[in-house]
Amino acid sequence: MHPMSRRGVLSAGAALAVAACTPGSGDSATPPASSSPAPPPDPDLGLQDDVARQEWDLIALYDAALASPGALDPAQLTLLRDQHREHAAALGSTGPPSSSSGPASSNFPPGGDVRSVLIDAEQKASGARTDSSLVARAPDLVRLLALIAASEAGHAEALRRST
Amino acid sequence: MSAGLAAAIEGEQAAVYAYGLAGPHLDEADRSLALGALAAHRLRVLALREVAPDGLEPDAPAGYDVSPVADAAQARALLARVEARLCATYADLAAETSGVDRTQAILSARECAVRSVAWGAPPEAFPGREG
């Protein structure tokens, strides 16, 4: 319950997630708590991968917005995009999945409302994180998804307020 | 006069606290009465503080943010900070609940994050998390 221990636990959870998602890390990535000979795959790992993929789609969307002429304040777009990178990193993903076919710049035709597209994407993402948290098992992952859901709701508000 | 005003503010704050404490135990038929009264007491806290002279600050209950508020900028900063911190508190609550309770905790965290940004806080990747 103390801030220090909470931060420590979250950091440990993030580190574990990173280890678990690193190719070739083998058995060392297995959480030490599981002592059974053949533990079933951790369903949280698939969930983390799914959410991380969605975060990379959002990053691609922001990159497309940044490339769109006459768009919103580039400094704000960069800030929000980089926070999605932080989300992905906390989920154990430091780079876009190779199979990613994220939204391309064709999402923003000339004259299209970039701001509305981004607000809609952030709100949907916030709702999706809320849904994902219901099937997450590890308390650290639930807490992380809750914070990401809140962050993305805040992003939508920041975009609404930008002029 | 000042003492009376301070006591009235404290009394209104105590009433808000009492409604929060008593509300869940009331019969369904009394709920709308309680919600209306709660809203009225909250409005009175704001109204009394508007007429209170500077420096008249009743003691804050334990655990309340007691940062000094001298102008609009400090007021907005305090509210942005309180909302962000409460966001992280709700994320902790989500982690130790399940089902509809977890959903409600996350919805509350989201609302706090939105209000924090509305009060001028910069967007955060992990709202209210220390460090």
Notes on the structure:
With 163 residues, chain A is mostly helical. Chain A is built from five helices and no strands. Chain A has a single domain, classed as Ferritin, core subunit, four-helix bundle (Ferritin, Up-down Bundle). In chain A, α1 crosses α5 and α2 runs antiparallel to α3. The longest helix of chain A has 25 residues. By secondary structure, chain B is an all-alpha fold. Chain B folds into two domains: 50 residues; 47 residues, no CATH class. Chain B is built from four helices and no strands. The model of chain B has no long low-confidence stretch (mean pLDDT 86). Classes of the chains: A mainly alpha (163), B mainly alpha (131).
**CATH class assignment of chain A:** Mainly Alpha
Percent helix of chain B, as a range, is: 55-70%
Largest sheet of chain A: none
Report low-confidence residues of chain B grouped into runs of 5 or more.
none
What profile does the largest beta sheet of chain B have?
Answer: none
The CA-CA distance between the termini of chain B, in Å, is 45 Å
Radius of gyration over C-alpha positions of chain B, nearest whole angstrom: 17 Å
Q: Strand fraction band of chain A?
A: under 5%
Oligomer: heterodimer
| Gross CATH architecture of chain A | Up-down Bundle
Summarize, please:
The complex is a heterodimer of chains A (163) and B (131). Chain A has helices at 3-21, 43-67, 74-90, 114-135, 139-161. Chain A is mostly helical and 163 residues long.
Distinctive features:
heterodimer, A: 163 residues, mainly alpha, Ferritin, 5 helices, 65% helix, disordered N terminus, B: 131 residues, 2 domains, 66% helix
